[in-house]
Design brief:
126 residues, mainly alpha, 6 helices
Length: 126
């Protein structure tokens, strides 16, 4: 199970960083699509940086929860924009990374909860 969780994290990190880099590097397709929806170049770059930061924050255990939340929010915004742009198929496909990021949030919360319960029981035994 740990291998599957690690694989999910790696996939979401790569997706988030790749999507962010496409925005920061102002790739023509990305710029055309997002500017067509009313986003200006500065906002697109900021959005890309948020995606990159979220992906990087997913890597260490310590920052995994804020990273997962940031990545999930960015993925939701991207998916909404895709639906607004009228691409139903790609919009539906874009729900998969949101589900994967949600699994990371769930697993991280569960691990944190277990850790807190273990720490609480250790305090009483000393």
């Amino acid at each position: 199970m740990k291998v599957i969780n690690l694989l999910i994290i790696v996939v979401v990190v790569l997706l988030s960083i790749a999507a962010g880099l496409a925005k920061v590097m102002q790739t023509p397709q990305e710029m055309e699509f997002l500017q067509g929806l009313g986003l200006n170049p500065v906002l697109i770059i900021v959005f890309g940086l948020v995606q990159i930061v979220g992906g990087v924050l997913l890597l260490p255990n310590r920052t995994r929860m804020p990273g997962a939340i940031l990545v999930t929010l960015a993925l939701v915004v991207s998916t909404v924009l895709i639906f607004i742009g009228g691409d139903l198929r790609f919009g539906l496909f874009s729900l998969i990374p949101i589900a994967l990021a949600s699994v990371i949030i769930y697993q991280t919360a569960r691990a944190t909860h277990k850790s807190l319960n273990t720490d609480a029981s250790d305090v009483g035994s000393t």
